[in-house]
Amino acid sequence: MKKYVICIGRQFCSGGKQVAKLLAERLGVDFYDAELLRQKAKEIGIEDGIFDMFDEKPTRSFLFSVVMDPYAIDSAVNEGKVIEAQRRVMAQAADKGPCVIVGRRADKILENDYNVVSIFIGADMDWRVARFLERESMNEKAARRFIERKDRERASYYNYVGDGKWSRADNYAMCFNTSKMEKEKIVDIIVDYIREEFAD
Questions:
Q1: Helix (H) or strand (E) holding 127
Q2: How many Cα neighbours within 13 Å face the side chain of 173?
C-alpha cells in the first residue's frame, strides 16, 4: 500500500481521538497524539520548551502570553523554530510509513510532502456537553463555556499559520458527526476509502 498520512482534526469532546485510535488499529498503522509526538520530539533532540509552544493553544493569546515570555514566543515563531520543530517531528513519523496523527495542524504541515488525507470530526454541542459531564464535575453552563473555549483555542491554533479553515468542510477530504453516526461506522467508511485510494 502507498505511503499516506491521515490527519484528524476534531472539535473538543467529539470523540475524534477515539476515532483516530480505532482507525489506526484497523489499518495496522502507527498512531500519534500529543504525548506520542512529544516523545518523538525528545528522541530527535527537540527540547520541551519548543514543543510546548506548539501545544493546541493560540500562540498569541493573552493567557498563553501570561504563562510564557511573549518575546521568546514571537522570536521562536519568527525564526520558524516552532514550525520547523513540528515539521521535523511529524515528518519523521510519516517517513516510517502510513500513520494517523491527531491535531497539531498536521494536515497543513505535511500536505506538500506527503499523501495527506485530512478528516474532521465534530458533534452536536448538547451531545458533547453530556459526554463531557460524564467525566467532569461541572454544571452544564460551565461545561458549555469550557467546550466553546477549547474549540476557539483549537481554531486559533490551526488558523495561526493556516488559512482560516478549521472545521470548514471544504478544507477536508471527509467530515463526520459522531453524535449522528457511530464511531465504528465512521472508521469503516474511512478504511474503505484509504484501501481504495492507496492500494498498490
A1: helix 125-133
A2: 17
d(CA 53, CA 57): 8
157 pLDDT above the threshold of 50: yes
Angle at 25 between CA 189 and CA 96, to 5 degrees: 105
pLDDT tens per residue, range 41-77: 777 777 666 666 555 555 444 344 434 444 444 554 5
pLDDT at 64: 44
Extract the C-alpha cell encoding 71.
518575546
CA distances in angstroms from 183 to 55, 122, 178, 198, listed in the order given: 26, 11, 6, 22
How many residues are given for the chain? 200
pTM of the model: 0.83
**Strand partners of residue 100:** 6, 31
Q: Which DSSP state fits 80?
A: T
Distance CA 74, CA 97 (A): 33
- H or E stretch covering 155: helix 140-160
Our measurement of the distance from residue 196's CA atom to the centroid of its chain's CA atoms, rounded to an integer in Å, reads: 24
